[in-house]
């Protein structure tokens, strides 16, 4: 029998709690649900009012993975949704506005991915993202070096920037913006990637071509497109172990660069609660409109 739990007055069936999702560590679906419940205070502000895309892995990272944007079948009527414009018309996507919705979605076994804009202002970016993706033998250590250069470059334009691990190989830099059209945010992000390549030609590439990337860090600016999404802060990832896309301090980024140990910035689900207790939500400023920066002058 599927157990029923009540969350914020909503009755939720939570299935297969003993199922092992990550064989390398024995991490179960019940532990996944516990992880999302205990990090909800930090995760929910990063998801709220952003149409959610799900990467589902119901049989674990070694099973079938499928990406879903549309509202799943049998979604409860109380789950909020939003209309999202697409090139082929308008669709509806889930909004994770509260703990009950978070736990319902987590029961599907998901990574959470969000756009850089909110549902009430489609294609108007209120944050910028730079995805630093290393090409072997480069790793997150080299991403840290690039991130620190980008931090200074962004500061020169008046921006505060925040770092998190991707939960896979690299780093994400997030910058809060006074909302602008996504095309304009994307153009600025591309210019930053090109500047980084010019300044660090031995280390950075701004184009996606695979033959350019071995030993370098690809500064992926494309996720600022209105149609693209990025792994949300605090989401679990469908990797061999239950890694988390984890906010990190700039001191930690500098230490990883200096020590040269990629393992310094690998965080698992069990690491997050102690980090929240120690640091609080390092990405809290992203949800404060008062901290948003303005793009350099240009057409709006």
UniProtKB/TrEMBL annotation:
Pfam families with a match to the protein in the record: LigD_Prim-Pol
GO MF annotation terms: DNA ligase (ATP) activity
UniProt domain DNA ligase D polymerase: residue ranges: 28-282
EC number: 6.5.1.1
Region (Disordered), start-end ranges: 280-300
Enzyme class, broadest EC rank: ligase
Keyword tags: Ligase
Lineage top rank: taxon: Bacteria
Classification via InterPro entries: LigD_pol_dom (IPR014145), MtLigD_Pol-like (IPR033649), NHEJ_LigD (IPR052171)
Record-linked PANTHER family: BIFUNCTIONAL NON-HOMOLOGOUS END JOINING PROTEIN LIGD
Protein name listed in UniProt: Non-homologous end-joining DNA ligase
Taxonomic source organism: Streptomyces kunmingensis
Gene: ligD
């Amino acid at each position: 029998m599927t157990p029923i739990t009540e969350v914020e007055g909503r009755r939720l069936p939570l299935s297969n709690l003993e199922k092992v999702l990550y064989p390398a560590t024995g991490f179960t679906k019940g532990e996944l649900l516990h992880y999302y419940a205990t990090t909800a205070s930090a995760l929910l502000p990063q998801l709220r009012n952003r149409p959610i895309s799900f990467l589902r892995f119901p049989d674990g990272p070694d099973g079938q993975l499928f990406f879903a944007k549309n509202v799943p079948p049998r979604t409860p009527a109380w789950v909020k949704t939003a209309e999202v414009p697409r090139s082929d018309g308008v669709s509806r996507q889930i909004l994770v506005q509260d703990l009950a919705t978070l736990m319902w979605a987590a029961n599907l076994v998901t990574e959470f991915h969000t756009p850089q804009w909110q549902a009430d202002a489609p294609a108007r970016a209120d944050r910028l993202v730079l995805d630093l993706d290393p090409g072997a033998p480069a790793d997150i250590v080299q991403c840290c070096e690039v991130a620190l250069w980008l931090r200074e470059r962004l500061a020169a334009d008046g921006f505060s920037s925040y770092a998190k691990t991707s939960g896979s190989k690299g780093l994400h830099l997030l910058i809060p913006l006074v909302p602008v059209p996504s095309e304009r945010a994307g153009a600025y992000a591309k210019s930053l990637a090109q500047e980084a390549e010019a300044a660090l030609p031995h280390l950075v590439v701004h184009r996606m071509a695979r033959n350019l990337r071995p030993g370098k860090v690809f500064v992926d600016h494309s996720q600022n497109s209105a149609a693209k999404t990025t792994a949300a802060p605090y989401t679990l990832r469908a990797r061999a172990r239950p890694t988390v896309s984890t906010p990190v301090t700039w001191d930690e980024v500098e230490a990883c660069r200096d020590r040269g140990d990629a393992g310094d910035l690998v965080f698992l689900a069990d690491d997050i609660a102690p980090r929240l207790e120690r640091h609080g939500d390092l990405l809290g400023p992203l949800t404060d409109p008062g901290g948003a920066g303005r793009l350099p002058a240009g057409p709006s």
